[in-house]
Structure formats: C-alpha cells, structure tokens
Amino acid sequence: MIREWDAATYDSLPLPHLRWGRRTLERLPLTGAETVLEAGCGTGRDTEALLELLPRGRVIAVDGSARMLDRLRDRLADRLDRVDMHQADLTRPLPITGADAAFSVATFHWIHEHDTLFANIARALRPGAPFVADCGGHGNVARVRAALAKVTGEEPQTWNFAGAEETRRRLEAAGFTDVEVALVPDPARLEAGEQFESYLTTVVLGAQLDRLPAAEHRDFVRAVAAELPEPVVDYVRLEFSARRAGS
Ligand SMILES: C[S@@+](CC[C@H](N)C(=O)[O-])C[C@H]1O[C@@H](n2cnc3c(N)ncnc32)[C@H](O)[C@@H]1O
Questions:
Q1: Of 67, 125, 141, 218, which has the maximum CB count within 10 A?
Q2: Rounded to an integer, what distance in angstroms lies between the CA atom of residue 161 and that of residue 191?
Q3: Is the CB of 202 under 6 A from ligand 1?
Q4: What are the extents of the domains in the chain?
C-alpha cells in the first residue's frame, strides 16, 4: 500500500539507513556507465551516492511517495539530467525495461506481494543484471511489535519481514540466479525522549498513525515507547544479492 512520508523529519533523523545504504552499494558491481533502477529511493540519499559511482551512467529513481520524491528533486536539483524519476507503486508493472542493475534499501518490508515485486523488477532489468537489496527481515523489530501488540491489543499486520529461504525461492521463481541471502541483526540506539519518539513516529509507526486522528499520535507513540526497555529499535536486516538470469 502506498502511503505518504514526512520527508523533512525523515532526513533530519540519525538514520541507520545511511549505513544500510552504504553496505548495499558496496555489494553492487558497477563500471560507472550503467543505468541503475533504485526501488524505493525515498529522499534520494542513496541516489546521490549512486550518481557518484556512475559518472557516465544514470539512475531510475522509483518511489510511491510524492513528498519523498519532492525532497529528492531538491537534493539533486543540479544533477536531474541523470535521474529519471517515477512516482509508481512497485507492486504494479513498471514503465522500465533494460536497466543494467537494481538497488533497494529499507523498502521491501513495506510490500506484502514479494512475488509480484520481484517479477516487476526482473522485467525492468536486462539479462545478467545484478540486483542488490536490504530490507527488514524475519525477526525485525520484534520488541517494537510486542510493544505495539500490548498497546493496541492486536498483532501489527503492517510489515512483511520475510525469511531468507522464502526470499531465495521467490527470487529464483522470478527469474534470478546466483542468489545470496542473509539475515543480519543490526539494532539502532536513539536518544531517549524526543529523538526516539520522533524516530518511532516518522520511520517506524507511520502506518499505525495513519489510522489515528493527529491529536492522538503523541500519546500513542509515548505508550509504545514506554513498553520498550530502552530506546533501541531491534532491527534484523534481510540482505540479498542476485542476478537476472540470461546473459
Ligand atoms: C523507509 S523508506 C526508505 C527510503 C530510502 N531507500 C532510504 O533508505 O532512506 C521506504 C520507502 O519505500 C517507499 N515505498 C514503500 N512501499 C512502496 C511501494 N509499494 N511502491 C513504491 N514505493 C514504496 C516509501 O514511499 C518510502 O520512500
């Protein structure tokens, strides 16, 4: 499901996404002349880093959120001649073919239909193209989920924290080979109080807050934070690399 994000607050936070982005980029083999599809580019932090690695190449930046893309447009205003931006739902067929590589950070756990997602990305790539990604995986934010369940009385259904083996199977079924998948625990510690609450509000609990009146957001976030033993988000990353079959 596509939802909007508070892009300005998102960029102001000490995001562990920065290291996830760097780590994922390190796994992407590039010569510098490729056209790279970035799936869920957000505000363009990794798009900017990708452009540095692609002096003769381009980025096709796809995201569902208009506000995130507005921020990307501002950030990369002087380099937009090398960026094709698409506001699009990754679960719908993408208007892209022949890309040389695909890259994604912290996006796929927001999407339930991974079979459709991987098939759409495979169709956007040329044969042999690498695909590297990071997202929340099995066991991700288990303590936050437990805190949420305590506050709301129900299990959160928002995310899709897939396991390693099911992801391998899905990638192979979608036409990828040379699949490598790992689950990597990587907790993020925030400052207690305002910073932690702002982080939970903007990065973690947006989908739950969308269902509540704005006047109730602060109390809801504080109730969830109060159920956590420390200001830590217990992330477990699903990291994978694969290659589009064919040559
Ligand atoms: C946590 S942000 C990550 C953004 C960026 N990759 C980063 O690391 O900062 C998740 C992004 O995924 C996008 N997203 C989630 N579901 C999507 C979908 N079905 N289609 C397109 N974009 C989606 C959101 O709009 C958001 O920008």
A1: 125
A2: 25
A3: no
A4: 7-141+158-190+233-244
